[in-house]
C-alpha cells in the first residue's frame, strides 16, 4: 500500500507541473468568451492583416536563413578540411550568446542613414541609392544570424555521425558530390535539422525586442500594445491565442517532418576530405558569418563602452546586474529542482500517464514569453479576485511569484534535457552495487548520483540561468515594480534611440551568455577526444 501511495503521489506531482503549463493556455482560449467586437473591428481595420503577413514573412524568411547558414556551415565543418576549421567549428556557436535585440540595435545603428555604412557608401559609391535601416529584410537577416547555431549544432552532429562509406557508395553509383549531399546526407540528417529549425522558429515567434527595434509589428508587439496601450488585457489574451496558433502549426510541421524521416548512424566520425580550391572560400564564408553575427556587434558595443568610459557603471547599473543575476539564479535553481524531480519520477516510476505528463510539463518552451505573461496575469487576477471574496487581500499580480512561474513554465524543457541525460549516466547496476556494499540512500545520492550527474546539472543551471537573464517579454510584462533587469533596461534605452547608453548592459548580457556556450563547446570537445567519441 505504501508503494502504491508513493506512486500515486509522484504521479500527481508530475501532473500538477503539467497543469502549470496547461493553465495559461486554457485561460487564453477562455478569453474568447468575452466579446471584444469593437477592439477587433479596430484591429481588422488597421493592423491585423499586417500582423499575420509580417509573422508569416518572418517564419518563412528566418526558416530559409537559418537553414541556408546552419546546414551549409555544418556540412563544411563536418566534411571538409579548410584553414581555421579547428577554431571555427566552436566559434560558429558564439552567436548563441548574442540576444537578438542586442544585434538588432547594433544593426540599426550601423545601417542608419547617418551610420558608418551608408556614410561610407555615399562617399565612395555615390551612385548607389540610400536604403532604410528598418527594412523587413534586415529583421530576417538579424534573426537568422542569431538563430542559425540551433540548426548548425544539430546538423553538424548528424553529419559527423554519418559514415563516409555511404557517400562513397553514392559516388560509385554515379552521384556527383552535390547530388550525394541532397539525396543521401541531407535526408539522413533531416531529423536533427528539423529539431534545430523548430527551436529557431519558436525563438522567432517569441521575439519581441528585435522586432520592436526595427518597428516591425508582429503579434508580440501587438500583445504589448493592447496590454499597455489600449489597457485591454482580454484583447491581448485573444491576440496571444492567435500567436499560439502559429506555434502549434510550426510544431505540427516539425513533428510531421521528423516522423517521415529516418535517423541513421553508421558509426564513427566521417573522415575529413581536403579540397584545396574551395578551402579558402569556405574559410571566408564561415568567418564572414561569424563576423556579422558576433565579432562586429561585440566590437561596436565595446567601442561605445570605451567611448563613454565608466559613466554607465553607477549604483543603478550595478543594481540591474544584481537583480538580473538574482532572478536568473532563483529561476535556475527552481527549474533544476523541478526538472530533477520529473526526470526521477519518469525513470523510477515509468508509466504512460507519467510520460504524457512529463511531455506536457516540458511543452512551455514552445510558448512565447508574451503568451505566458498574458495567461499568467489573467490567471493570477482571477485567483486574486476569488481570494478577495473570501476576505483575503493577497496580492499575486506583478509579483516575483508570477514572474518565476513564467520562467519555470518557459524554461522547464531547457533544464529537463541535460538533467535527464545526466540521470541516464547513472546505471542501475552502480546503485545496486552501492546498496549491496551497505550504503544508505543518502550515501548513494552523495557518492554515486551527485558526482556522475554534476556536469549535466551544472549545464542545466547555466542554460536556464542565462536564458532567464536574456528573457525580455515575460520580464517586461510581469516584473514587480522596481525590478528592472538588464534586458528591460536595454528595451527602455533602445526605445528612446539611446544606442550608446544601451551598450553597457548589452555587452554585459553577451558576456554572461558566453558562459554556457563555452561550457557546451568544451563538453563537446571532451566527448570527441574521448576513446568512445
Throw out a few tags for this protein.
MetI-like fold, 2 domains, 1% strand, disordered N terminus, two-stranded parallel sheet, 2 strands, mainly alpha, globular, 533 residues
Mean pLDDT: 81
Structural class: mainly alpha
Q: What fraction strand?
A: under 5%
Can you give the helix content as a percent range?
A: over 70%
Q: List how many beta strands DSSP finds.
A: 2
Describe, in plain words, how this protein is organized in 3D.
By secondary structure, the chain is an all-alpha fold. The protein folds into 2 domains: 32-308, MetI-like fold; 309-533, Orthogonal Bundle (MetI-like fold), CATH 1.10.3720.10. 78% of the residues lie in helices and 1% in strands. It contains 22 helices and 2 strands. The protein has helices at residues 2-30, 37-46, 48-79, 85-91, 100-111, 116-124, 136-161, 164-172, 177-206, 209-213, 219-228, 233-259, 276-308, 315-348, 352-361, 369-389, 400-424, 428-436, 441-470, 473-478, 486-495, 499-529; strands at residues 80-81, 273-274. Strands 1-2 form a two-stranded parallel ribbon. Helix 1 packs across helix 15 (352-361), helix 1 packs across helix 16 and helix 13 (276-308) crosses helix 22. The longest helix has 34 residues, at 315-348. It is globular, with a radius of gyration of 25 Å. The two termini are 46 Å apart.
Amino acid at each position: 500500500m505504501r508503494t502504491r501511495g508513493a506512486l500515486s503521489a509522484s504521479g500527481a506531482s508530475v501532473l500538477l507541473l503539467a497543469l502549470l503549463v496547461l493553465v495559461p493556455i486554457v485561460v487564453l482560449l477562455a478569453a474568447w468568451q468575452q466579446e471584444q467586437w469593437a477592439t477587433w473591428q479596430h484591429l481588422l481595420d488597421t493592423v491585423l492583416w499586417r500582423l499575420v503577413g509580417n509573422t508569416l514573412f518572418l517564419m518563412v524568411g528566418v526558416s530559409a536563413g537559418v537553414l541556408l547558414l546552419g546546414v551549409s556551415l555544418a556540412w563544411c565543418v563536418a566534411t571538409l578540411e579548410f584553414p581555421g576549421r579547428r577554431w571555427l567549428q566552436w566559434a560558429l556557436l558564439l552567436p548563441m550568446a548574442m540576444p537578438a535585440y542586442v544585434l538588432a540595435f547594433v544593426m540599426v545603428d550601423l545601417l542608419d542613414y547617418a551610420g558608418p555604412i551608408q556614410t561610407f557608401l555615399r562617399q565612395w559609391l555615390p551612385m548607389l541609392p540610400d536604403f532604410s535601416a528598418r527594412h523587413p529584410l534586415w529583421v530576417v537577416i538579424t534573426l537568422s544570424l542569431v538563430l542559425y547555431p540551433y540548426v548548425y549544432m544539430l546538423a553538424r552532429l548528424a553529419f559527423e555521425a554519418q559514415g563516409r562509406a555511404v557517400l562513397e557508395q553514392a559516388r560509385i553509383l554515379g552521384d556527383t558530390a552535390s547530388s550525394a549531399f541532397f539525396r543521401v546526407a541531407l535526408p539522413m540528417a533531416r531529423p536533427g535539422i528539423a529539431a534545430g529549425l523548430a527551436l529557431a522558429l519558436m525563438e522567432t515567434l517569441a521575439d519581441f525586442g528585435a522586432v520592436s527595434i526595427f518597428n516591425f509589428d508582429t503579434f508580440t508587439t501587438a500583445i504589448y500594445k493592447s496590454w499597455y496601450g489600449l489597457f485591454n488585457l482580454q484583447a491581448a489574451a485573444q491576440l496571444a491565442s492567435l500567436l499560439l496558433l502559429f506555434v502549434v502549426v510550426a510544431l505540427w510541421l516539425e513533428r510531421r517532418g521528423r516522423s517521415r524521416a529516418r535517423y541513421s548512424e553508421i558509426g564513427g566520425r566521417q573522415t575529413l576530405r581536403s579540397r584545396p580550391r574551395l578551402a579558402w572560400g569556405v574559410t571566408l564564408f564561415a568567418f564572414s558569418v561569424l563576423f556579422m553575427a558576433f565579432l562586429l556587434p561585440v566590437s561596436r558595443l565595446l567601442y561605445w563602452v570605451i567611448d563613454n568610459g565608466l559613466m554607465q557603471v553607477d549604483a543603478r547599473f550595478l543594481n540591474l546586474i544584481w537583480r538580473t543575476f538574482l532572478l536568473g539564479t532563483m529561476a535556475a535553481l527552481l527549474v533544476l529542482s523541478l526538472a530533477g524531480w520529473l526526470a526521477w519520477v519518469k525513470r523510477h516510476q515509468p508509466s504512460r500517464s507519467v510520460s504524457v505528463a512529463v511531455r506536457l510539463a516540458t511543452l512551455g518552451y514552445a510558448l512565447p514569453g508574451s503568451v505566458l505573461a498574458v495567461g499568467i496575469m489573467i490567471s493570477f487576477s482571477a485567483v486574486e479576485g476569488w481570494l478577495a471574496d473570501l476576505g483575503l487581500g493577497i496580492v499575486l499580480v506583478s509579483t516575483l511569484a508570477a514572474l518565476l512561474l513564467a520562467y519555470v513554465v518557459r524554461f522547464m524543457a531547457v533544464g529537463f534535457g541535460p538533467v535527464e541525460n545526466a540521470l541516464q549516466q547513472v546505471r542501475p547496476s552502480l546503485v545496486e552495487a552501492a546498496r549491496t556494499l551497505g550504503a544508505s540512500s543518502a550515501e548513494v545520492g552523495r557518492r554515486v548520483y551527485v558526482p556522475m550527474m554534476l556536469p549535466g546539472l551544472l549545464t542545466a543551471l547555466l542554460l536556464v540561468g542565462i536564458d532567464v537573464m536574456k528573457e525580455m517579454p515575460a520580464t517586461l510584462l510581469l516584473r514587480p515594480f522596481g525590478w528592472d533587469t538588464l534586458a528591460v533596461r536595454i528595451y527602455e534605452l533602445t526605445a528612446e534611440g539611446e544606442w550608446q547608453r544601451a551598450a553597457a548592459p548589452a555587452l554585459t548580457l553577451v558576456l554572461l551568455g558566453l558562459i554556457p556556450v563555452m561550457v557546451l563547446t568544451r563538453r563537446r570537445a571532451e566527448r570527441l577526444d574521448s576513446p568512445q567519441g
